[in-house]
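Extended Data, panel c. Modelled sequence:
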Amino acid sequence: MRAGSAEAGSEATDLLLSVAEQLKIPLSTIARQAELGRMTGTVCLDDVAAIRVQADAALTLVESYLLGLELLREQTSLLLEPVSVSSMLADIAHDLYRYARQYGVELELHIAGKYEPVMAHPRGLRAVLLSLGYTLIEARAAQEGDKRRPVLTLASHRSAHGIIAGLYGEYSDLHAAQWHRALELCGRARQPFAALSAGSAAGLFVADTILQAMDTRLRVGRYLKQSGLGMTLSPSQQLSFV
């Protein structure tokens, strides 16, 4: 059941505070690179590319937040339709590639099996995966003690409850209890999910809000000895791949 109007208003405020904190990172990067270009009188192509990547990440977070805010206010579930998990993850991996490269993170795509479509809201699922991806890329890049090039895996696999799609990496000591505590601290602490992110982790909370409207939630899980966050999606009973 969705929250009442008062609770929804409080949750929207918490999300806004978290998003505002998170936006400091890309906006500060953009401002710094633009100022360097002004001081030197030159702007190289690498600087332009870096600014564009950071701007895209910031805009994605804002757009995802607005979708989540709309859902909180309306207190309704999204209209679900059959969506291909494989195609969606492939598109997301492509969209996240430049951001991951800027942070020195290697992306891997694992689609374990051939699945029937799942029931989801295409725009909502895309916003969820992008918001999740941006946050976890930053988390992998900032992880201390990782001597190798950090790897982030976009993966889907079948479970007894449906198709699980998520992003996973070598995050140490990541547990479900920490995520549940982070949900309580969203908007009330600078580092609500300190076990994973040194920032506000706004993308994770925005993603979870959108997923609630698809009758699922973001959960801590494991894939091939890696830990991360994912969602369980119900297979479509109407269509199947041949």
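Strands lie at 81-83, 106-111, 118-120, 151-159, 162-169, 219-223, 226-233. This feature is highlighted in the accompanying rendering.
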